[in-house]
Amino acid sequence: MSWGLIGARWLHEAALLVLFGAAAFPLYAGPGLLAETPGFAAWRRARLTLLALVALIGGAAWLAFTTAGMSGEPADAASPSAWLSTITDTDFGKLWAVRLGLIVVVAAAAWLRSVPLQAALAGLALASLAWTGHGDLPEGALGQAHRLGDVLHLLAAGLWLGALWALAWMAAHLPDAAETEQALRRFSGAGQLAVAVLILTGLLNAYAILGDLTKLLTTAYGRLLDVKLAAFAGMLALAAVNRFVLVPRIAAGGDLGRLRLQIAAEQALGLVVVAIVAAIGTIDPGA
Fold it and tell me: Which residues contact residue 3 at a Cβ distance below 8 angstroms, ignoring those fewer than 6 apart?
């Protein structure tokens, strides 16, 4: 049951992260990107719709496993009446219903032309994950700071992961390497901001949850967090190579083959990070 819950959380959270990043990408990658890049608008619309569908499937599975876990009856994972009870009687269920409603609206908005609307709706759906974490958080200012930090952490992670999917499409489909190089340079500013936010909010959240950073070595939660940090460091290293080595080569007329491999590796590490986050969410931080 726990592995099923982790898998459901991973599917749901990964889809929401990439959904927000892909929705927001045109906002900073260039005002004419959707109109001037052949095929990108159609690709993005289809991907937003597909990601919303995956998020809905993952969310439904998350509800099913959570319902069974609450009741202690595995059969309740497939019981609509038990699902309804979870939705109406628990804070998790109410928030789950609101989030899935937002995802449905995002899927509909994907067929409109308003990029800011798509990004705002996807951002709200992603940010709502901050209220489905551990319940035993500190009260007062530290607890509020943690919640805000969690929201910013999610949005920054989505900005990065979603952009990788858009950049991968450009590297694979654009005949002119200069266009991909330009998009990479435009992303670099947003990417650097996202990294700074991820580091600062990650430290804040770790302190708020663990209370003592030495628990990074003495608890199961902390050790999983260490693995997440190692994967994140790998993503940073790949991103640095992309920006400071490959982009100048592309600008000088180099091919995009190495860049495609680097982006694929960065995407894979990103999905590993999300899987660890999904597992961490099922663990008692003090255990």
Answer: none
